[in-house]
Amino acid sequence: MAKQCVEFEDYSNTSKVYDATRVPVGVEALIDLLKEQKCESLLDLGCGTGNYLVPVAPHLKKVNCLDYNTGMLEQCAAKVEKLGLKHVSLQQGSILERLPFDDNSFDAVMINQVLHHVDTNGDFSGSAKAVSESFRVLKPGGLLWISYSDPEQTLKGYWYNRLIPRVAKEYSLRQIPTTHMEELYKKAGFQGVTSVVDHAPQQGEAYFNLTGPTTQCFRNGDSQWSMATAEEISAAEEQVRSALKCQQLGKLFDEYDQGRHEVGQTTWTFGRKP
């Protein structure tokens, strides 16, 4: 039986509304890389509801998807069926275990906003396992793409994290630093390792809904909210409502969002197997 990923978010429930506030940041750059490398097969590790899968799949001949949470897989399967993506296969499994695929099976592997769910003990062994297993299942010349938020982006890149400072600090400890990520790539054997900072909000236009933090739907779009106590959520809501009442909510947003313009919100690291 696959080892369980540590799900501090109840994705069995939030998967039903997850897509209301999430967009696949950086997917255009990913598609360009896949085209440049003439990739035909891809493994989507931690596919979630298929946010990245949907725009990427039409450019490939075979896609395998793996996710631990059955609720997320159900949402992804519904999209696959609706779009008639016959070349896409889904299965339940954990990236903390040996992947159920042969060596040298795929032209590309993508892992998007997943690794903070498997890095819980501070040594980033979950990320190391994912990178090394990706190397194993990739064909020579294969591409590994990982998107994530590093600790500084987690602390400074999301305006609403300023509303829940304790949670933001704790959450940042789950995020792998970019320098460490690049070291994992190189240790596994990848070459041409490159990291790119993206300033676009992961929540798309919903990010600019300034009263969003007062609603459950908005909070369901980012898993750190599930780490907040009822008192912390109440305090965050009160801060937003108070600023709105004083007609200062826009000013508060501009102040709290400044960090995103400085450090970005997402980093993509990619490299190729020799």
Outline of this structure?
The chain has 274 residues and is of the alpha/beta class.
Describe the structure.
The chain is α/β, with parallel strands linked by helices and about 270 residues long. The protein has a single domain, classed as Rossmann fold. It is built from 11 helices and 7 strands. It has a 7-stranded mixed sheet, with helices on both faces. Strand 4, helix 5 and strand 5 form a beta-alpha-beta unit. The longest helix has 16 residues, at about 230-245. It is globular, with a radius of gyration of 18 Å. It starts with 10 loop residues before the first helix and ends with a strand. The relative contact order is 0.16. Residues about 1-15 have low confidence and may be disordered.
Question: Any descriptors?
Answer:
single chain; 274 residues; alpha/beta; Rossmann fold; 7-stranded mixed beta sheet; 11 helices; 7 strands; 38% helix; 18% strand; globular; disordered N terminus
Spatial extent as radius of gyration: 18 Å
Strand content: 15-25%
- Catalogue the unreliable spans: 1-17
Domain count = 1
The first-to-last residue Cα distance is: 32 Å
Query: What is the overall pLDDT average?
Result: 92
- Count of DSSP strands: 7
Choose one word for the global shape: globular
CATH superfamily: Vaccinia Virus protein VP39
Known CATH architecture? 3-Layer(aba) Sandwich
Largest sheet: spatial strand order: 3-2-1-4-5-7-6
Architecture blueprint of SSEs:
Blueprint: H1 11-14, H2 27-36, E1 41-45, H3 53-56, E2 62-67, H4 70-83, E3 88-92, E4 106-112, H5 125-137, E5 138-148, H6 151-156, H7 165-172, H8 178-188, E6 191-198, H9 216-219, H10 230-245, H11 249-263, E7 266-272
Parallel strand pairs: 1-2, 1-4, 2-3, 4-5
Antiparallel strand pairs: 5-7, 6-7
Helix pairs in contact: 5-8
